[in-house]
Amino acid sequence: MNSKNNEITRRGFVKTTGVALAGSMFVSPAFASILNDSTKKRKVALVGTGSRGNSFYGQFLKEEYGDVIEFVGLCDINEGRLAYSKKNIGLDCPTFTDFDEMINSIDIDLLMVTTVDSTHDEFIIKGLNKNIDVLTEKPMTTDEHKCQSIIDAQRKSKGKLIMAFNYRYGKVFTKLKEIIESKEIGDLVSVDLNWYLNTYHGADYFRRWHGLRDKSGTLLLHKSAHHFDLLNWIIGSDPVEVYANGALEKYGKNNAFRGENCRSCNHTKECDFYYDITKNERYMDMYVANEKYDDYTRDNCLYREEIDIFDKMSVLVKYANNVEVTYSLTTYSPFEGFRFAFNGKEGRLETQEGIPWRDSKPEDQSKLHQKEMDNTSHTKMEHKYHEIVSQRNFEDFKRIEFPYVRSGHWGGDKLMFDDIFRGENLKLGLNHAADVRDGSLAVLIGIAARKSIDSGKPIKISELTDLVPKINKWS
Question: Which is nearest to 344 in space by CA: 388, 390, 387, 386?
């Protein structure tokens, strides 16, 4: 078989997609009810001024959308980090350490929530109860009771909850959904998704509050909510049953030595995971300088015994339309990436990213997550394409060389905010906009998986909240 005959060249791909995209920038109806008069700036307030709040919801929004939004309030329980954030983002607005004072004293069009995951529900519900639109980071919340409370609040509110599911806006994931919906491989039957966090990115979760179940709900919520939403969105149906396995075998108590934190540790020379936060000026100013206000330590020991989340996870999900998913999350892989495969009745579609032996030039693993999060980097990428391979039954395979994008969550960050703040979306028919139902179903898979691991039994999604799974998500 000559694979060259089956390749779609970059020139041909760009030519055909360029024609399709020409003139296709439409005004999205998804957020029409929350867009202000075009002559007025939307008044936004932010609660939670950690790294995500500072960069993604702070600096990036101010720089890219300052013509359509105005920051009117900034809130955090840590007064030192609050002062740092106001200066770092470059804001001239009131700051608050008391959320109730902020929400009751200023006029807000949109509240943005970027706090510790287990507290999302408090701020979402208070915002919705005031009939304010709310934009929240994933995961929407961390247990089924909080999830139900948010659902109930949304039903009574004139405000709208928006889920910041930027992965579904990512260019390569949008392309995968388009191919699936074109029936290139027929009706979808099953999906395999393996996600790998490397020893830099994966380990970092265990240094922070994410390593505690009562704050993050485990990585099945904090990290996997991205992946579960992506699966829900591409499959186009709702999950109905979940069975999972998982354990804590690498981090936490699974080590012979540990320290209070990396700065004060006596084992720096023998620890493969030693992290010198003093070399990160931003984190020193944002976190270390402000530990005295709330005792939050950014460079905690990832072997501390209080860690109680899983560091390996595998999940089986059955959908209302009978599609079945096998999913795994690895938190100490030597490389960062994923393998995504779709099996249809007429063929198979697959793609991968970050598999070192498939790349001509290995990437610096310590900088990969920075590239994903970076919305300002325009440095030249070593990779030119995402390789997507499609093969129909009884036919040769076709290789699509899709233009490579890594920064800004595969280009999804800006596309999501363009949709939310400008009402612009290049792909109106793909239902990118995510609401309370999308946020709920993503976390309910994670909650069900956590319950399944704890109990050893499969968990039905319908038993967790009053949401009734649909065969077709948009019916």
Answer: 390
User: Coil, strand or helix: which one is 348?
Assistant: strand
Rounded-to-integer distance, Cα 263 and Cα 456, Å? 39
pTM of the model: 0.90
424: which 2 tokens? 């612009």
Question: Average pLDDT of the chain?
Answer: 90
What is the Cα–Cα distance from 286 to 86, expressed in whole angstroms? 11
First to last CA, the chain: 43
CATH of domain 167-251+308-420+427-463: 3.30.360.10
User: 């029409």: which residue's tokens?
Assistant: 32
Are 174 and 380 within 8 A, CB to CB? no
CB atoms within 10 A of CB 292: 9
Rounded to the nearest angstrom, the gap between the alpha carbon of residue 362 and the centroid of all alpha carbons in its chain is: 25
DSSP structural state of residue 209:
G
* Pick from 301, 310, 115: nearest CA to 197: 310
Measured N-to-C along each axis, helices 224-235 and 436-455 cross at an angle, to the nearest 10 degrees, of 120
Which of 237-241, 257-261, 365-369, 470-474 bottoms out in mean pLDDT, i.e. has the lowest? 365-369
- Read off the DSSP letter of residue 421: I
**Token pair recorded at residue 157:** 């509110």
What is the distance between the alpha carbons of residues 150 and 434, in angstroms, rounded to a whole number?
15
Answer whether residue 365 shows pLDDT above 60: no
Coil, strand or helix at 196: strand
Cis peptide before 139 (omega within 30 of 0): yes
Answer CATH for 31-163 from 3.20.20.70, 3.90.1150.10, 3.20.20.370, 3.40.50.720 = 3.40.50.720
Query: Cβ(150)–Cβ(140) under 8 Å?
Result: yes
Nearest to 99 by CA among 113, 80, 83: 113
3-state secondary structure at position 386: strand
At residue 38, does pLDDT exceed 80? no
Are 212 and 371 within 8 A, CB to CB?
no
Residues 217 and 146: beta-carbon distance below 8 Å: no
Q: What is the pLDDT of residues 240-264, one digit of tens each?
A: 999 999 999 999 999 999 999 999 9
